[in-house]
Amino acid sequence: MKTGPAPHRAEPQPAAARECPDPPLFHGMLVPLILAWTGERQTEPGPPRDTDTYTVDGVRWETWTGTRTGAPLWTVHHPARQLDLMDARTRCSVGGGPAHRTPDGLLWLLPAAPAQPGATAIRTANPPLCLRHAHQALRHCRRLAVDCLVLAVPEVEIVAVRGTVHRPGADASFEELDLEDPDLDLMVGRQLIAELRRAVVLEALPPLAEPEQPSAESAAVPPPSAESR
């Protein structure tokens, strides 16, 4: 992986976009598609192997087995699903459907950080959101309700990979490497990292077209995981 893909530029939202599906509930909370479950686990951690299933332009990817059963791991992205969602750059991290597009770009909802509000480019492992799931996240997540960035992003580019680097003669280390880094050949990837460029900070989420009907269970979306920055 020596060169990255061309930046993705958001187009205006179609008049009739396909609705983003809801993921499974766990104790009344929506479990985002991107998250791992206790019924899933990595197989044989170690250096890059020819048998590794998922690759991104030659970068080996963590291979996990199992099913979405047991309990959700609220702070852990499932590597294969994160790869699929982030590589698309236009899919909601909660339901996997189309992310919301504003006139200024795709919708992102991120925890605020001191260095982010004035930044011209923001790096994240968290994909965008559809409008309905963004409203649910903001309503039910205490962390986002207190301090978050609502962004419209016109340009998104995959710029890096996070994963475990296995250098000869050294202990394995979890790092973030840019796409041009020669040590990518020694990495087993876990997350694609996108750079959000020329992001517009919105004062609030765009309103839903129609009032949302509450479900029998008050579904909530958990906060972005520790891995999602």
3D architecture notes:
This protein is mainly beta and 229 residues long. It has helices spanning 79-88, 131-140, 142-146, and strands spanning 8-9, 25-26, 29-30, 35-37, 40-42, 55-56, 59-61, 64-66, 72-77, 101-102, 105-111, 121-124, 148-153, 155-165, 173-178, 187-197, 200-202. The strands form 5 sheets. Strands 1, 6, 7, 12, 14, 15 and 16 form a 7-stranded mixed beta sheet that branches. Strand 14 (155-165) and strand 15 (173-178) form a beta hairpin. It is globular and about 55 Å long. The protein starts with 7 loop residues before the first strand and ends in a 27-residue tail after the last strand. 38% of the residues are buried. Mean pLDDT is 82; it is low at 1-6, 10-17 and 213-220.
What is the compact description of this entry?
It contains three helices and 17 strands. Strands 1, 6, 7, 12, 14, 15 and 16 form a seven-stranded mixed sheet that branches. It has a four-stranded antiparallel sheet with strand order 10-11-13-17. The protein has a two-stranded antiparallel sheet with strand order 2-3. The longest helix has 10 residues.
Q: What structural keywords apply?
A:
globular, disordered N terminus, 229 residues, mainly beta, four-stranded antiparallel beta sheet, 3 helices
Q: Please tell me the overall pLDDT.
A: 82
Q: Report the helical percentage.
A: 10-25%
| Largest sheet descriptor | 7 strands, mixed
Number of helices: 3
**H/E series:** EEEEEEEEEHEEEHHEEEEE
SS-based class: mainly beta
Low-pLDDT runs of 5+ residues are 1-6, 10-17, 213-220
Overall geometry = globular
* Number of beta strands: 17
What is the CA–CA distance across the termini? 22 Å
Q: How much of the polypeptide forms β-strand, as a percent range?
A: 25-35%
- The radius of gyration is 18 Å
